[in-house]
Design goal:
265 residues, alpha+beta, Four Helix Bundle (Hemerythrin (Met), subunit A), Nonspecific Lipid-transfer Protein, Chain A, 2 domains, four-stranded mixed β-sheet, two-stranded antiparallel sheet
Amino acid sequence: MRSMDVAEVRADLLTEQEVLDDIVAALTPAQWDLATASPRWSVRDQIAHLTYFDNAAATAIADPEAFAELRDGLTAGAVDGDSSVDDLTLGAARTATPAEVLEAWRAGRRRLADAGATLGNDTRIEWYGPSMGSKSFLTARLMEVWAHGQDVIDAVGATRAATDRLRHIAQLGVITRGWSYVNRGLTPPEGHVRVELTSPSGETWTWGPEDAQATVRGPAEDFCLVVTQRRHPGDTALVAEGEIAEDWLSRAQAFAGPPTDGPAA
């Protein structure tokens, strides 16, 4: 598959954000306070989470020193547990009106869009873990808005058409196979897994050698839902052949942060 440049990734990120904006802008005030699948989080919390980290990402690009202070503050707060992190990242939104929460997210997105426009393909950005290349950095933001958007969609009963923008998330899911183990203090199993996905437009996306010991096949959307831990593999049309493929899908985690488990079947 052709490699995209950072400007194309940024454009797809902006489009994915607009898709979710269209959904949440139409919600009633009561819907903003509906519980989502994420423990402790309502719809407003999901949008507030995106707002906080879009702003953090913009700061990381534009002012690395200021971002380092922001990161250190959040890391220190994390020592006191999830509730302290929620206070730091979501607190302001929990006392704001839905309109204020939405406008704050839009403002953060504008900051990130402007900062992202300055990135070159070879730029590296400091983040909460290791530094990231510019394309991976913006891909991670796209993955976040899509995944947290799924939580919102599930909570309010909305729908969202699958598009070939999922390629970014699928790619991230494939390259984080090793991370899914290392993050748990485990050694990734030896061997290759070939991934063959059917895109929303009907193309076939492939990763890994044809003679790999194991394979994962199925719809790209289902793969993305699994690697972002929004669906259990058994509740999708994915087919895993080989022990290392089945084991990977059971613990796949395409996002940074402490190891977490996806939903039960």
